[in-house]
Amino acid sequence: MKIFVINCGSSSLKYKVFEMETENVLAEGIIERIGIANSFLKYENNKGQELKIEAEIKTHKAGIQLLIENLLAAEHGVLESMDQIKAVGHRVAHGGEKFDSSILLNEEILAEVEAMSDLAPLHTPANLMGIRVCQELMPQTPQVGVFDTSFHQTMPEKAYLYALPYEYYKKYGVRRYGFHGTSHGYVAQKAAELLDQDLEELKIITCHLGNGASMAAVKNGKSIDTSMGFTPLEGLVMGTRCGDIDPAIVPFIMEKEDLKPAEIDNILNKKSGLAGASGVSSDMRDIEKEAEAGNEQAELALEIFNYRVKKYIGAYAAVMGGVDAVVFTAGIGENAIETRTEILKGLEYLGIEIDEQANNCRGEEKIISSADAKTKVMVIPTNEELVIARDTKNIVS
Ligand code: ADP
């Protein structure tokens, strides 16, 4: 069975085509700059053929049409007909409280997702557009929605409610939802497999450290807390997002700098985090380089980043009553060796002891704690698209 996975953003669209018998990726890539000058499609197939097709891609529909042409192309295509695609799985950023698992999309469900779009105004409309275009271009093919929030719907009220007037929760749905759910769920399951233990019996802290970064406390297979909140702004320091701050800073800066809500929102989401604190870049590799070259502000930004992760490890060990495993994933988590070392330093009291030699790895599944450490630490490459493909397959089978 072949499954098409789509992660549709406002001006870009990531895709993968899976052969589910083997879970191999037949083709993958990205369409970038949709509706903007210099748009292009990147395409790579399982025979190692790579293409960058520069074309005027004015709409998502035009982008997906171009992609379909390439999937079917004689020289580098991977399909004979689009009918070979048994279903399309879509990443949907926000499922609110309604969707605690992936679901077959129909008009009723889409209307419900649309009604919640003010919870993720930058993402949901784009996700919906991807779904609509696929419905139009592949009218006979089932479409499945996989929500970034679903995995965290198991959090107890005390973890997801903010101490704000209760009416805002009731009126506007203001609560913690959490994101990166497919990733946290996937690496927690993988960690249990790597330990050869039952997920239901483990206390795992998952650290998804990418451009966007979040952590989750996964107890007995369920997310009981996570660092992102009402939006993906809360929690860890990220590439350009500030993470946790005193909320009183917001009106203070707005008044001092005469800013409108959209302007402060832009600063917190796009100009803060590693970029804001380092004054160098939002990219971990650039900051590491600068810090090595002696840039003290870059070094400080790294310290702030690591310190926040360490604080959450402590917090989540506390709420779970201990921790059996800590998992690192996503761009930084999988690759930044020094970052992992610094985060874990001083956590011996939690049974965490890193094996520096084992930790000297990038992007591979590996246990990096010393052999006799009570708490296992591991690197597990995430695979959100595979989770979407598996869910999609299960729903249509
Ligand atoms: P996104 O959230 O956009 O999917 P990724 O998971 O790809 O992000 O993570 C991007 C981050 O990973 C960037 O900060 C990048 O610098 C960092 N990263 C990637 N490779 C390395 C590496 N070899 N060493 C350190 N950081 C890395």
From TrEMBL:
A Gene Ontology MF term for this entry?
ATP binding
Q: Which UniProt keywords apply?
A: ATP-binding, Cytoplasm, Kinase, Magnesium, Metal-binding, Nucleotide-binding, Transferase
Q: Which cofactor does this sequence's record say it needs?
A: Mg(2+); Mn(2+)
On cofactor binding, the record's note says:
Mg(2+). Can also accept Mn(2+).
Where along this sequence does the record place binding of substrate?
Answer: 91
Metal-binding recorded as keyword: yes
- Source domain of life is Bacteria
Biological or metabolic pathway of the protein: Metabolic intermediate biosynthesis; acetyl-CoA biosynthesis; acetyl-CoA from acetate: step 1/2
- What is a biological process (GO) this protein takes part in? acetyl-CoA biosynthetic process
| Binding of ATP, residues | 14, 208-212, 283-285, 331-335
Q: What does this protein do?
A: Catalyzes the formation of acetyl phosphate from acetate and ATP. Can also catalyze the reverse reaction.
Q: What is this protein called?
A: Acetate kinase
